[in-house]
């Protein structure tokens, strides 16, 4: 009895694996789409990955995987899958959607330069897409404003640094003045003492030179006056 039960379980397991391997990439995509519509994006992602494992050249699976990742806010990973889909997608309408979504992600992260290029590529494949055209115009305007804001920020930062430097210098001068004022007036600084000592030495040297010169000159005789 145990032997039959063991064989039955093994047959079920084998049939299960056979059924899974027989499932095509399209079936995984349909399963993923059903989960995606139910907003179960993590499980939808898993199904799309299974489809890609079956057929790495299935651009629809790559695109849908990008959408599932995007809905989970895995934006960097989503862009990678969209780019993979864009490289092999042959349908212009689907290719336009790929680059439109790349543009949306970049725009969300204020990467306006990258968003503009993505929207341009989308319009090359579908020039009638008014939503993409609107997003492109909006990104161009936002990019200009971003550049102005960045330039103004640089100016403000420089002005702030210059003011801080000036304030520090003024504070340093005040501190030095305060230190000088706090010093005892009758206390001579080292520099002043050295200056006075040098002056005294110079004066003494000059005196010695005058005395030496006077000694070298002939002395005049004093005559006694006759009375």
TrEMBL record:
Signal sequence extent: 1-24
PANTHER family: PROTEIN O-MANNOSYL-TRANSFERASE TMTC4 (PTHR44227:SF3), PTHR44227
Swiss-Prot/TrEMBL TPR repeat ranges: 96-129
GO biological process per UniProt: endoplasmic reticulum unfolded protein response; protein O-linked glycosylation via mannose
Species annotation: Hoylesella timonensis
Location of region: Disordered: 143-227
InterPro entries attached to this UniProt entry: O-mannosyl-transferase_TMTC, TPR-like_helical_dom_sf, TPR_2, TPR_rpt
Keywords: Repeat, Signal, TPR repeat
Biased composition (Basic and acidic residues): 146-193
Name the record gives this protein: Aerotolerance regulator BatC
Source taxon at top rank: Bacteria
Ranges of Polar residues composition bias in the record: 200-209
Any one GO molecular function term: mannosyltransferase activity
SMART domains linked to this entry: TPR
